[in-house]
Fold this protein.
Amino acid sequence: MSKNNRKLRRFAIQVPCTFGNHTYKAEGTILNLSRQGCAVMTAQPLSVSSYLSLWISLPENHAPIEIELAGVRWVSEQRCGLEFIRISPEMANRLGSFVAVLEHTA
């Protein structure tokens, strides 16, 4: 999905995240977020069409939101775009609540 074909508005934010798969884990910073995806800045090189799990650290020491499966849709230098593919209902509710707060403060 290109940056111009997004279905939902993304909100600018800077929160830490951890991502990886069965062979590695790395850290990054989420630069924008929606209910369906995000942009991440990271020093870890990622490849378009690769898949990973993502843990979004929330402010105020809440437990991270876990995205079970995310696909890398674009890469530009140290930034990449992730599409959320699989997320548990509980985590989807938490993500939706967090994005709703961003919508009201934007």
Observations:
- The helical segments are 89-105.
- The radius of gyration is 13 Å.
- The chain is about 15% helix and 45% strand.
